Amino acid sequence: MSTLHQLNHPGKLNTCLPLLATGDRLLLIESAVALAASRDFLLALPEGVQLLALAQDLQARGLQQHLPTAVSSISDEQWVSLSLEVERVISW
User: Fold this and answer.
1) What pLDDT was estimated at residue 66?
2) Residue 76, C-beta contacts closer than 8 angstroms, at least 6 positions apart
């Protein structure tokens, strides 16, 4: 069962991280997009979890140009489509 985890604050990462499973997607939104620039965060992610970040939030924080290749930037429209593709959505 694939799950979209929507993380909006870096402080909630420790609660979310243990529940990520292979095939899940983690979408960084709002202030959590800052995690995309953290090497430690990228290394802590379980294998098989797709990492995404909301383009609008990256741009608002000036992070779009510094995005690692492991992170895919998505639009609001792609976010809506993704929400419909997965079996469940969890907001952190």
Assistant:
1) 80
2) 54, 56
Nearest to 12 by CA among 59, 21, 69, 34: 34
- The three-state DSSP-derived secondary structure of 22-42 is CCCEEEECHHHHHHHHCHHHH
Distance CA 60, CA 81 (A): 22
Residue 78 is given by DSSP the state H
The total of other beta-carbon atoms located within 10 Å of residue 62's CB is: 8
- For 3-91, CATH number? 3.40.1260.10
Question: What is residue 22's predicted lDDT score, i.e. its pLDDT?
Answer: 96
Separation of alpha carbons 40 and 26, rounded Å: 16
Chain segment 12-58, per-residue pLDDT in tens: 999 999 999 999 999 999 999 999 999 999 999 999 999 999 999 99
CB environment 20-42: b (16+ within 10 A), e (fewer): beeebbbbbbbebbbbbbeeebe
